[in-house]
Each structure stands twice: as structure tokens, then as C-alpha cells.
Amino acid sequence: MVRLYKTDNMQKTRIIKDKTAQAVMFALTLISILMVVVMFVGLYLKSAPVLEERSLWRLLTSSEWRPMKGEFGFLPFIASTLWVTFVAILIALPISLLTAVFLTEYAKSYVKKFVFPALDILAALPSVIYGVWGVLVIVPWISKHVAPYFMDFSTGYTVLAAGIVLGVMVIPILVSLFIEVFSSVSMELRESSLALGATRWQTTKKVLFRRTYPGIIAATVLAISRAMGETIAVLMVCGCVIGIPNNFLDPCYPIPALIANNYGEMLSMPMYEAALMFAALILFFVVLVFNLISRIVLYRLEKRLGS
Amino acid sequence: MIEVKELNVHIKGNHILKNVNVTLPEKQITCIIGPSGCGKSTLLRTLNRLIDTTEGVKLEGKVLVNGQDILSSDADVTDLRRKIGLVSQRPCPLPMSIFDNVAYGCRINKMFNKRRQLVYQVQKNLKAVGLYDEIRGRIRTPAARLSIGQQQRLCLARSLAVEPDYILADEATSALDPISAKTVEDLFVSLKEQYSIIMVTHTLRQALRIADHVVFMYLGEIIEQGPAEQVFHNPKEELTQKYLAGAFS
Ligand SMILES: Nc1ncnc2c1ncn2[C@@H]1O[C@H](COP(=O)(O)OP(=O)(O)OP(=O)(O)O)[C@@H](O)[C@H]1O
Ligand SMILES: [Mg+2]
């Protein structure tokens, strides 16, 4: 019994290694969290000039955008970001969900063998390629075949175009995430439902979704965060017209596009630079708050359902 | 009555069940015995076509349930599964409350119009498995919080609630402690008045206690079948004698 507590040399090295590894990993975790904090503080400091000049409320709710006169109203950009993200998720969510259900619940294994690598390739395509596809295909299509039903003329560079391009970009990521989520459910659970006379679709709705909705929500939040920050592809098809979009056929100007378009050009004007930094801060904040809210919602739901 | 005729099952090119011919009588307990890996679970899963979910499976032959071939392509699989319930080896409650677990099958199959009838059905079957008093007051709590033995009985109640004709039980007591196992075992005996029960078991003593009819399998083949009395006390085949003597398994 005594021998059990005696640590010989080998035992000691093992423990030291373990402790060191733990310390290193902890330090690395700390650094990555610290980076985020540093970025946040940096953005805040850089945007201080514009925050001193104008009230926060005014910056967020005004639609006046006259950099030359020092007027910076961010509402059009915020609204555009939300619009585009909303349309993108509206398109991507149902398609991705059903695709993932098909692949995990219905498809034969040889179908999966073809589709999985294809999804990975799609997810890895550079976003500029999606942008080009948007400009060459989606924008003209909207201009010729969609807009005429609603208005006299549209260039096609619209909320809808940006939403479609963004949605299509997000689909492969979302499908992969959903497949991961659904694969975590045991075959036995599905079979318990099937054995009671349920169809596969009933099993999907009542057992699979019910079991995995936290994962579904988490994956969707990840996709939305990704969509909010996407720049190049959206920039190419959104129209870049400043104004609050009233419908999905209006042009728009999301925050990332604003920053990418103007950063570097206008740095001679200190106030403009501060404004762009503030735009980044807004984006940062929106994504953060959004993630936080979803965490809270998930936590509440899980607690209530006790799973 | 279930009659299995010339059934051959291949999984990914492996011949799992070979020329299986079995007759499973009604309102009796049939025990399927045999060493591990001989295809008992596969046979059970074929009887309610749950085998369909297995990747790369090929079925040949006939399985006649009340004279109808359930392996034919026009068989109504969901209806078949309602009529032939399966209780699996490990209990697997659905991710919902105890009540909803039992009500699930009834709702899926639209068995009742009135909520009162549904509640009655759920209570009746929870009582049948001796769970009703144990879980009184927390019938709305998640089923996952029950103990394993309670979960297994819940799964049985869930199967009974859809009013099947047959109950297939795959080593339904193997995950349970002796006392819960005895409860479930007694339950099966009391159920045979109304249901035809086909159970796989690894405990020969259990089979001895409750079987009316016995099927002995070995390496995917049926070696012997018949009334329990005859198979246990007067086996015709040498393999059966050896198995019963504990020579292998
Ligand atoms: N999905 C599958 N893929 C490949 N082989 C399988 C599959 N399912 C079963 N088998 C094979 O079929 C044979 C019979 O399996 P089965 O599960 O029916 O045995 P069993 O008699 O129930 O055994 P046990 O008593 O251990 O549960 C085994 O050799 C097994 O390896
Ligand atoms: Mg088995």
C-alpha cells in the first residue's frame, strides 16, 4: 500500500510534463482571449475622437452621412448589415437543414461519398469567387427577371443579391455543421422511434430535431456571425448606396463593405478614420451581443427541458 | 403466427442468416437462444424490418405475418412496426418527458382523438410495467433522469402503448440488476395472455423459467426448435445438447 504513494523518478517526470502542458495550454488560451480584449480596446481608443464629437445615440440612429462635414450616421449601414444577414439566413437555413437531414437520414452511403467532399470544396472556395458569380449571374438575373415584377428598373445590385450570394456561401458551412450535429445522435434513438411505427420524417421532426436543437441553434449562430462579417463577396453585389433599405430590392451598404471600401483612402481625415474604427466596433459589438444572447437562450432552454 | 421461410440475410456480403425456417407461435413466449454473434438480433430486427436501417443489407426469402409477406416491397413498414414492437437490449428513452415517451407512439399513429383517452392509455401501461407508483408526481420530467431499470420498463410501456400483437425483446433484462430483471421477467409472463412474445436471452436459466417455445441458433442457422419441454429436456441435435451443457457460449 505504501508503495502506491512513493513517486519514483519516472513518475515525477510524467507529472512535471503534465503540469507543464497544462500551464502552456492555459497561457495560450489566455493569450487568445487577451487578443480579443486588446482588439476591442484598440478599436475603442481609435474611435474615441468621433465618440467625443458626437453622442453615441446620434451616431447609431442618424442616417446623415457627410464625412466632409463631420456627420456620421451609421443607421443605414447597420440596417443594411441586418437586412443582408437576415435574407442570407432565410435562404440558407431551410436549405441547409433539409440537405443535412437528407444526407444523414435518407441518403445511401454512396451518395454521401460524393456529396461530402463536394461540400468541403464549396466551403473552401475563396469568397471573391462567390462575388464574381454574384456579379455575373445573380445581379443580372435579379435585374431582368425579379425586379421587373416589383419596380420599373433595378440594376440588380440589391439586398437580395447580397443575401443570395451570402446565403449560398454559408450553405456548405451550415450543412457540414448540421451533419456533425445530427451524426452525434445514436442510431438506437432513431430506431426506438421507428420501432413504434414512426416514419423517418416523423422521427426527424420529433426526435432528431428535439434532441439536437441546441446544436442547430449554435450552428446557426456561428453561420450568422460569419455572414455578418463577410466582406468581399457582399461588397461586389450590394450596390454600395448609402441609405436604409426599405425592401429586398433596394441597394444597400453593410458595415464590412463600408470599412473595406474607404479604409486607406480617407485616412488623411482623422475624423473619418475614427468613424470607420467605430464602424468596426459596432460590428464587433453586434456579433458579440448576438452570440451572448444565443448563449443565454440556449442555457434557459436546456435548463427548462433538463437535457 | 409468424412463419419465416427460407430467409437469407446478407450484410455487406457476409452471409449472416442462412436458410432460416422458423415458426413462432401466438400467445406464447418464444425464447431464441444461441452463442454471441449467431444472428439472434439480426433475426429479430428482420421480423419488424428494422434491419432496413442497416447499411448494405440484402434480404431473401419470406416472413409471413398472418399470411402476409412483410419482406415484399408493398408491405406497410410503419404499420408492421406498430404491430410488432421491439424492446432493445439497452434502454433508449426518447428526449422528452416520461408521459410523452409513452404517448409518443399513440400520437404518431393517431390512436386517440380525446386527450382523456391518451392519458388513460399512458397511465394504464405505466401501471402495467409497475412504474406508475414509482414515478408519481414526476411524469412530466425528462425520461433520461430515470434509473436504467426504470428506463427499460418505460421502453416496454412505450411499446405496449401502441397495442402491438407481438413483442420482440432483445436481451431486455441483460442491462438490469437481478431484482429489476425479475420484475421485467414476471411482466413478460403476465403479458403472454395478450401478446405473442419473442425474446432473445443469454441466460439459459431465464429461458428455462419462462419459455414455452425455444429456438436454438448457431452461426446463422437454426439448429433446433420446438416446445421448451422437448428442447431443454430431450434435445434431438448434438449441438443443442452441447450448448445446453454449457460446452460453449
Ligand atoms: N451492421 C452490421 N454490419 C456488419 N456485420 C454485422 C452487422 N450487424 C450484425 N453483423 C454481423 O452479423 C452477425 C450476427 O450478429 P447479431 O447481432 O445478430 O448476433 P447476436 O446473435 O445478436 O449476438 P449477441 O448475442 O452478441 O447479441 C455477427 O457476426 C455480426 O458481426
Ligand atoms: Mg444481439
Give the helix/strand class of chain A: mainly alpha
Strand content of chain A: under 5%
Annotated CATH homologous superfamily of the largest domain in chain A:
MetI-like
The level-1 CATH class of chain B: Alpha Beta
Q: What's the arrangement of strands in the largest beta sheet of chain B?
A: 6-7-8-3-9-10
Largest sheet, strands/sense/barrel of chain A? 2 strands, antiparallel
Shape label of chain A: globular
Bound molecules: adenosine-5'-triphosphate, magnesium ion
- The helix-and-strand class of chain B reads alpha/beta
Largest interface: A-B, 23 and 30 residues
Written overview of the protein:
The complex is a heterodimer of chains A (307) and B (249). Chain A is an all-alpha fold and 307 residues long. Chain A has 2 domains: 9-53; 65-305, MetI-like (MetI-like fold), CATH 1.10.3720. Chain A is built from 12 helices and 2 strands, in the order αααββααααααααα. A two-stranded antiparallel sheet of chain A has the order 1-2. The model of chain A has no long low-confidence stretch (mean pLDDT 89). With 249 residues, chain B is of the alpha/beta class. Chain B has helices at 40-47, 77-83, 98-108, 115-128, 148-161, 178-191, 204-210, 228-233, 238-244, and strands at 2-11, 14-24, 29-33, 57-65, 68-69, 84-87, 166-170, 196-200, 213-218, 221-227. The longest helix of chain B has 14 residues, at 115-128. Chain B is globular. The mean pLDDT of chain B is 91. Chain A binds chain B through residues 109, 186-199, 202, 206-207, 210-211, 305-307, and chain B through 48, 50, 53, 55-56, 78-79, 81-82, 85-86, 88, 90, 92-96, 104-105, 108-109, 141-142, 144-145, 155, 158-159, 162. The site of adenosine-5'-triphosphate has 12 residues of chain B, from strand 2 and helix 1.
